[in-house]
Amino acid sequence: PRFIALIPAAGTGSRMNNELPKQYLSLAGKPMIYHALHTLCHSSHIFRVFVILAPDDHEWNRYDWSSFADKLVVKYCGGATRADSVLNGLKAMQQTDGSIVKDDWILVHDAARPCLTIFQLDQLIDALALDEVGGLLAIPVADTLKRADLNQRVMGTESRNGLWQAQTPQMFRLGLLMDALSKVNSAAITDDASAIEALGLDPRLVLSDAYNFKVTYPQDLALAELILQKKET
Ligand code: C5P
């Protein structure tokens, strides 16, 4: 089986308070999605990288993507939710390239995790290439977790024992992932592993690190730039 990356990038990034969707915000002189694409396209494991855009995306073509031309395929088939965008992307993938089969591994990665490294990617692939189910990069929760009411009054302290933060890439076989995503309520899930779990399967967590964090709020941009600078040196 081969390893194929899929980046759903059809979101609007409403939490960023910005007109421009998050994947295009400027980060170290490039649109944010450039950085994850760079890592995925430069991995010798990855056969192809599909980017899934909103049907009405007018931003993508304003940039030069020619340095990724040997692996990059762009599809304007994003859906209403992230899960819909991924499912539409998987269908488009099969239509585009008949050689892609149900046994191939799909690595779904968020454009909003620009600091992914080749090392983390290799760790994921090495850990899961022979796995029955697949899995995802993740890190153990470090902070103490409080449950609060609507007035921000603490209702209790949750044990963080055994709790992990899910990251991406999340790696599952094409056939299984399509089956899982087509059965699930796509508005109710925020990652691909949840859809696999809903089938009664147990994805495996592969230890990552905090550098592969999700850029969500405006102040995250400066942090991501620092990490990217470190990566280059
Ligand atoms: O909003 P959030 O940060 O959870 O989005 C995660 C990823 O899913 C982003 O890369 C975003 O562009 C993508 N997405 C999508 N289609 C949607 C919603 C989000 O491809 N309808």
UniProtKB/TrEMBL annotation:
Keywords linked to the UniProt accession: Isoprene biosynthesis, Nucleotidyltransferase, Transferase
| Site-annotated residues for Transition state stabilizer | R15, K22
The answer to whether keyword Transferase applies is yes
Q: What class of enzyme is it?
A: transferase
Give the pathway annotation: Isoprenoid biosynthesis; isopentenyl diphosphate biosynthesis via DXP pathway; isopentenyl diphosphate from 1-deoxy-D-xylulose 5-phosphate: step 2/6
| Enzyme Commission (EC) number | 2.7.7.60
Q: Name one GO molecular function term.
A: 2-C-methyl-D-erythritol 4-phosphate cytidylyltransferase activity
Free-text function comment from the UniProt entry: Catalyzes the formation of 4-diphosphocytidyl-2-C-methyl-D-erythritol from CTP and 2-C-methyl-D-erythritol 4-phosphate (MEP).
Q: Could you tell me what this protein is called?
A: 2-C-methyl-D-erythritol 4-phosphate cytidylyltransferase
Organism this protein belongs to: Nitrosomonas communis
